[in-house]
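Weekly modeling sync, notes
Attendees: S.R. (lead), two postdocs, one rotation student

Agenda item 3: backlog of single-chain predictions. S.R. asked that every request posted to the team notebook include the full sequence so nobody has to chase files. The rotation student volunteered to paste the first one in as an example of the format we agreed on. Action items at the bottom.

Example entry:
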Amino acid sequence: MTYFEHLKIFSVYSIVDIETTGGSKGNGRITEIAIYKFDGEQIVDKFITLINPEAYIPDYITRLTNITNEMVAGAPRFFEVAKQVVEITQNTTFVAHNVSFDHGFIQQEFNSLGYDFNLPCLCTVKLARKFLPGYDSYSLGRICNDLDIPLNGRHRAGGDALATVELFKRILIISNGMLLEDTPYKKLNFKGLNPLLNFDDVKLLPTKCGVYYFMNAKSEIIYVGKSKNIKSRVFNHLSGGANGFAQKMIQEITKIDFVLTGSELIASLYENNQIKLNTPVYNKSLKRSKFKLGIYSYFDRKGFRRLVIKEILGIDQPLASFLNAIDASQALYKWVDEYQLCQKMCGLFHESGSCLQYQLKQCKGACIEEENPHDYNIRVDKFINAIDFGYTNLFVVDEGRTSDEYSLILIEQGHYKGFGYFNSEESVSDVDQFKMYITSYEETRDDRLIISRYLKKNKPYKLIPF
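Predicted structure, as returned to the notebook:
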């Protein structure tokens, strides 16, 4: 069996290094973090930044790392980059040189934010001792020197993490990938699993994109999830470290099923559909509604198209949705500036007379009727079009479930209608032919938000307006 055939369980790694204010997570804070996303062959993404530790960096640490208090004063605090850390490490194996140190510090930072950060871990110190025996020291500096691995920027997160990538790559090649055969399963607490769950079936789960189902002894669907790598995500569920409620779910799982989607966008849409269709008991608790507030539009009696922030109740579709009032207000203030809208017309200014932007000559006077509704509404419509799909009628062509297949999503009259698949060798030339491949799904309030957010952050294979 070849090296690449052994990359069965986790084919993507987050190779991490951090610098800190001290040697213990109990009294130290992170000052720098570097993450290289590595697919077993090459780096596919990276994230490197200084962190404001909100604590004093001792002189001896500065002498070691060359990171000063002045350097981190303007850097982001950890909570400001936490989302990026989660996104780049999601569905990966966490790799570091002395992994308990790096993972422990990062886990501590997330604990303070109320988030459970817990990834499968591999330690390059332990792996190097096993697969590269006989060296005097396995410190990163010494082992890299002995192996002629470049280490530029010692005791800086970016340089140390990049050297760890090269060390890990050597270990993978020397071990022929065999380190992955059993390692991830060793963390699994078999005592916490339902005895009716056949773990051999878990090992056969695909490493492809799709939606997965957890079922109980009554064959009831108790949880629905999605992932770019189904096997990896399911293993993360089962590998422990979950809170009490999640652990209760794990103990009830007797069967796991899945549907491949190919496209991440279809996975999100289908997961949303299946949660609403099956109302799994654990989705209600583990996947609480993320978006509480939305921005809506309406016409007032004078014909002005106004914007307002209000609670999402599931009746009308919001133009944009947010976790809380602060996020919603900040976004709307930004859009008001960008599109020269009126704060008063957007519910952001409540005093009588002209709004603050008018006084600063940044509003054209809709608030005191110096600007007519037609001219003002043109800019509001431009804003709405910019944050929506961008097209009233659209086919989104994306990845299929196999290499010779494409996926297809239909948006018609501004509404999501469904998705389907067609063979890449088929000749499809008009709208009616495309529609033949579509399986219809009833649009929910979340579908348009899912699509618009995806299209803003990703580039599918092709967009076909009609």
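Discussion: group reviewed the output briefly. Residues 122 and 183 are 8 Å apart (CA to CA).
Action items: rotation student to repeat for the remaining queue; S.R. to check formatting next week.
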